[in-house]
Amino acid sequence: MYWLSVTARAALILMLAAPLAPAKGKKHTHPDGFSFELPSGWTAENGPDAVLLLPPGVKVDPSREDNAEVYTVRASRVEAADFVNSMRINLERSGVKVAATDETFKGGQGMGTMHIFDFDHPERKVAYRIRLFTVLVKGWRLTLVGRGLREKVSGREGQLREIARSMEGR
Q1: pTM, 2 dp
Q2: Distance CA 34, CA 49 (A)
Q3: Rounded distance, CA 159 to CA 161, Å?
């Protein structure tokens, strides 16, 4: 009997601990040569210069601006700081009051930056979040962008961090 209770406790501990670390899925490589790990259950659709990431159960209508959550990865030659600053300036010019948070992280091929822009969407009147992760690799800026309803995007924080840490360049 004691053996059974120890086994049952061990199984319970493993089940409770499992959600803490996002399950890894498969590596996705864009035809331009950049790659990253997808969380388990996520899919990716290549576009000409970006990849649309789809968590399980999420549908994105590209003809609509009011998707609840949208995630993309892209590569460009624009400097990361210029891209982030231009986003900040554009939000401020539109009259949006933004609470911004910035930090650094260790990516697969070097250091990266993470940025959070939280604001109340002026047209939709909802709490909105734009989440950026940028890594500079061999002269290219790889950027993971999550945007949408604040609770949706913030609920995927762990998965987004794992994708960002796995981004690799050409």
Answers
A1: 0.80
A2: 10
A3: 5
Confidence (pLDDT) at 126: 92
Give pLDDT tens digits for 68-95. Answer: 999 999 988 766 667 788 888 888 888 8
3-state secondary structure of 99: strand
* Gap between the Cα atoms of 60 and 54, Å rounded: 8
Phi, psi of 96 (to 5 degrees): -85, 130
Tell me the CATH number for domain 22-166.
Answer: 3.40.1000.10
Q: Would you list the domain boundaries of the chain?
A: 22-166
Look at residues 138, 137, 120 and name the one whose alpha carbon lies nearest to residue 129: 120
Half-sphere exposure of 55 (CA within 13 A, CB side): 17
